[in-house]
């Protein structure tokens, strides 16, 4: 089912970076704005979204009462407060889709009435350009149709995979936080280009197109990244010299340590810290 055919009203509670990304994707994919509601605490932000999308920004209680599906897009630390606020108006058959890092479906289920279905999602910001990667996991009493509805929400802004919930912390470390690592690499390469004497604009164009082209090669050829890397690495050439430095500086080990740290932080968020 495409998102534009989806029935019912959808509310987004928490319309910061990720909430707006989802909202804009739903609008782009053809969802009627009058079938969308937003709950957002910051008054200025609410006004901005009303002006930008023509969407109704209402109280969280109103959003949770009127919607069939409620996307929870507040920070993990704010989730308990939001659930406590909306729980009294939630009813069996409604679907809660949480995009918050770390927060488990069991935590959400323990704060809402029985019969409210929960799906946990880990999205990422490339959803803003319809190239998102989202991983979804159903809670303990979520129907196939409700899981499909959650998938349809996320499919409006990119690709979706189903995963067991026990993998969500690792997924958060890889694709949820992943865009930040890539942007960090891009920043580092642009700075290096400037150090090597290139104008910043030239360095930026070279690095960004190299990233886009490499990503497209990975996706379109399906060739293993090791093979693609070897194709660039001429014996005794420039790439081999560069890669030796990356190994000397333990970049591979740094990536592993970074992603373990992100996974561990996701686990801590589940404990409320
Ligand atoms: N930014 C990212 O790349 C990703 C974020 N996420 C998850 O998405 C969630 C939101 O993250 P961001 O959008 O980055 O944060 P953000 O801080 O930009 O947005 C959170 C929004 O929630 C609003 N809010 C806070 N308390 C509220 C309440 N009681 N009622 C209504 N609105 C309330 C805030 O005013 C803010 O606009 C987090 O749980 C995060 O783990 C998941 C994957 C990627
Ligand atoms: O940094 C965070 O906690 C959120 C979750 C994944 C990406 N951003």
UniProtKB/TrEMBL annotation:
Signal peptide: none annotated. It catalyses: L-proline + NADP(+) = (S)-1-pyrroline-5-carboxylate + NADPH + 2 H(+); L-proline + NAD(+) = (S)-1-pyrroline-5-carboxylate + NADH + 2 H(+). It is found in: Cytoplasm. Residues 11-102 form the Pyrroline-5-carboxylate reductase catalytic N-terminal domain. GO terms for cellular component: cytoplasm. It is an enzyme of class 1 (oxidoreductase). The keyword Oxidoreductase applies. One of its GO terms (molecular function) is pyrroline-5-carboxylate reductase activity. PANTHER family: PYRROLINE-5-CARBOXYLATE REDUCTASE, PYRROLINE-5-CARBOXYLATE REDUCTASE 3. This is Pyrroline-5-carboxylate reductase. It comes from Nocardioides marinus. The lineage of its organism: Bacteria, Bacillati, Actinomycetota, Actinomycetes, Propionibacteriales.
């Amino acid at each position: 089912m495409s998102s534009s055919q989806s029935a019912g009203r959808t509310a987004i509670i928490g319309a910061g970076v990720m909430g707006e990304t989802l909202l804009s994707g739903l609008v782009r994919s053809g969802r009627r704005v009058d079938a969308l509601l937003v709950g957002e605490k910051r008054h200025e932000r609410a006004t901005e979204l009303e002006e930008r999308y023509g969407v109704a920004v209402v109280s969280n209680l109103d959003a949770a009462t009127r919607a069939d599906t409620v996307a929870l897009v507040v920070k993990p630390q704010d989730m308990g407060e939001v659930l406590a606020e909306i729980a009294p108006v939630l009813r069996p058959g409604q679907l809660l889709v949480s995009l918050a890092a770390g927060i488990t479906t069991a935590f959400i289920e323990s704060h809402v009435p029985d019969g409210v279905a929960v799906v946990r999602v880990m999205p990422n910001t490339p959803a803003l350009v319809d190239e998102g990667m989202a991983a979804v996991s159903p809670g303990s009493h979520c129907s196939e149709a409700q899981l499909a509805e959650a998938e349809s929400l996320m499919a409006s802004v990119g690709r979706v995979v189903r995963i067991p919930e026990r993998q969500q912390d690792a997924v958060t470390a890889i694709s949820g936080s992943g865009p930040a690592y890539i942007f960090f690499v891009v920043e580092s390469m642009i700075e290096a280009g400037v150090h090597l004497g290139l104008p910043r604009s030239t360095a930026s164009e070279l690095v960004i197109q190299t990233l886009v082209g490499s990503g497209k090669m990975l996706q379109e050829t399906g060739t293993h990244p090791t093979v693609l890397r070897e194709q660039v690495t001429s014996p005794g050439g420039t790439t081999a010299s560069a890669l030796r430095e990356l190994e000397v500086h333990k970049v591979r080990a740094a990536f592993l340590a970074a992603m373990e740290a992100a996974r561990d932080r996701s686990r801590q968020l589940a404990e409320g810290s």
